[in-house]
Design brief:
Elements lengths: L2 H9 L1 H12 L2 E2 H5 L6 H13 L3 E6 L2 E6 L1 H13 L9
Antiparallel strand pairs: 1-3, 2-3
Helix pairs in contact: 1-4
Length: about 90
Amino acid sequence: MAMTETLKAIADPVRRKILELLKQQSYSAGAIADHFDLSQATVSYHLKLLKQAGLVAERREKNFIYYDINASVFEDVLTWIYSMGGHRDEKG
């Protein structure tokens, strides 16, 4: 996993909102854009970065591309964060 790309992707509030939407259901890029006051091109850019970070996957159905959240990347990030926690053997 490219931790730097993942953390950079979730640092942006628009991308976090996109992930919140995708947590509920799959959306096309146009349906995602309807939730924002942004151009279709800007939403596509955010989706591209989320895909590069492995946070979303796309699937084609007829003439549409739908986006889904990839929860396994979040599990990997949480596992890494947890491993950095205070699990030291405390003496004394």
